[in-house]
Amino acid sequence: RNPVIRDVAKSIAKSRAQSKGGSSNEYALFFIGDESVGKSSLILQFFDKNEVPKPTLALEYVFFRKSNKSLVKDVFHVWELGGGISSTPMISVLSNLKVNSLMIILMLDLSSLKSLWNTLEACLRAAETAVLENKSISKLEAPHYEKENGQEPFPVPLVIIGGKYDKFQSLEPQKKRIVCQCLRFVAHLNGASIIFYSSNDASLTKKTKEFLINPKSTVHDKVVNLDHNKPLFIPAGTDSFANIEQRTDVNGPGSFEKYKQIFTSQFEQETTLVAKVPDDPALDSNFKEPAIDSLRQRKDEELEFIRHEKKGRRT
């Protein structure tokens, strides 16, 4: 194809977008969930970086831009909450975020099933409470949502990601079936999407990244997978309670408590441990910043000199 024609077409499309007031759209992604499950690794993929991520101590923020179909660059604001379930109280910051379009990404560690349900339940409860308190966030409209026992969908788009799938896939088939059934039910009950992911699998990483950037694309509906022997990929609205209930051995209507009992009876949940935070994160080698560290060292030396000088005057 003629590159000149292509460039002219791009220029025309761009000018049309600008003439229509084609200002960039802004989106907010808020990552919560298990510690060391791959949240930071996934976020780095938005920047096409393969570097080793640093541990997230508390709440971190980054942003990136991506061109949409009209060639206008959309802005994505990304928050990541570290610390696992012990940092759940910090999810309350959602109530103060000044954003219009928000998506919650809840990442669960599929290699640590004895704490997975505790994390799932605690994070869902905390996030829902905080979002409902925030009046600036547009709440979710789910026209194809299936109500179950009066349950309403999660108030904003929710994506549940099962991380470390590479370790989970070697689990016994029966146990994998139970995990997938329970997570599918919780996801569908909340009008959420569910994806299994591994930072060690380029294909799963690419698929997850593309979904988070454009979750409404109909392309995703063509690669839906409900099979527990393969990594789940179920966009919101593509599953059904009928399908999920057919895969269970328990009679009666579905409920969160029923599936909680199914899961926890198979995988007894451990007591939550409090995350260890360094006494002084500035001294942690994982957070080296040469320019800042050099300035701080100089200020520390100046402070020590002043202290020594004052001490000399007193004597």
UniProtKB/TrEMBL annotation:
<keyword id="KW-0493">Microtubule</keyword>
<comment type="similarity">
    <text>Belongs to the dynein light intermediate chain family.</text>
</comment>
<dbReference type="GO" id="GO:0035735">
    <property type="term" value="P:intraciliary transport involved in cilium assembly"/>
</dbReference>
<keyword id="KW-0505">Motor protein</keyword>
<dbReference type="GO" id="GO:0005874">
    <property type="term" value="C:microtubule"/>
</dbReference>
<dbReference type="GO" id="GO:0035721">
    <property type="term" value="P:intraciliary retrograde transport"/>
</dbReference>
<keyword id="KW-0206">Cytoskeleton</keyword>
<dbReference type="GO" id="GO:0045504">
    <property type="term" value="F:dynein heavy chain binding"/>
</dbReference>
<dbReference type="InterPro" id="IPR040045">
    <property type="entry name" value="DYNC2LI1"/>
</dbReference>
<keyword id="KW-0970">Cilium biogenesis/degradation</keyword>
<dbReference type="GO" id="GO:0036064">
    <property type="term" value="C:ciliary basal body"/>
</dbReference>
<dbReference type="InterPro" id="IPR027417">
    <property type="entry name" value="P-loop_NTPase"/>
</dbReference>
<keyword id="KW-0966">Cell projection</keyword>
<keyword id="KW-0243">Dynein</keyword>
<keyword id="KW-0217">Developmental protein</keyword>
<keyword id="KW-0963">Cytoplasm</keyword>
<keyword id="KW-0969">Cilium</keyword>
<protein>
    <recommendedName>
        <fullName>Cytoplasmic dynein 2 light intermediate chain 1</fullName>
    </recommendedName>
</protein>
<dbReference type="GO" id="GO:0005868">
    <property type="term" value="C:cytoplasmic dynein complex"/>
</dbReference>
<dbReference type="GO" id="GO:0005930">
    <property type="term" value="C:axoneme"/>
</dbReference>
